[in-house]
Amino acid sequence: MFTLSVGFLLLLGWSFLYLEPGTASYVIGQVSAAVLAVTAVGTGIALYSDWEPF
Predict the structure, then answer these.
(1) Transmembrane ranges (predicted)?
(2) What phi, psi does 53 have (nearest 5°)?
(3) For residue 53, is pLDDT > 90?
(4) What share of the chain is helix, strand, coil (3-state, %, to 5)?
(5) CA-to-CA distance for 8 and 46, rounded, in angstroms?
(6) At what angle do helices 24-48 and 2-15 cross, to 10 degrees?
(7) Which DSSP category does 35 fall into?
């Protein structure tokens, strides 16, 4: 999950080169980046703390 989130963040970061600030696509990209960042950080914390779900 961590690798997938980071991979999507990298692709999304590359797409920001082609988006114009202030457009709806740019805002959607920002929201998506925030969700992916929270997922990556949460997964990283869970992996770092050796959390076992079961």
Answers:
(1) 27-48
(2) -70, -25
(3) no
(4) 80, 0, 20
(5) 19
(6) 150
(7) H
